[in-house]
Amino acid sequence: MAPDLVNQGLELIKQASYILEGISNNPGVTSLQFYDALDLAGISCDDERDALYMAAANIEMSLELVDDAANPTIH
Fold this sequence. Notes:
The protein is mainly α. It has one domain (10-65). The protein is 68% helix and 0% strand. The chain is built from 3 helices and no strands. The relative contact order is 0.18. The mean pLDDT is 87.
């Protein structure tokens, strides 16, 4: 796999994580909340919005799979 592609993916995940943390530091952010945060951040490019949304959805799904009440996972 091309290192540039991996780095781009990691950067999208990092950016999506920061956006999620800005909304709430707990799992369960809604699509509407996320898109509102993108609007507030001035992110209007459809391709960038779609990529960030997919990264955020993967983060949220991963957090839902973690079931560790003693050590809760946050964004």
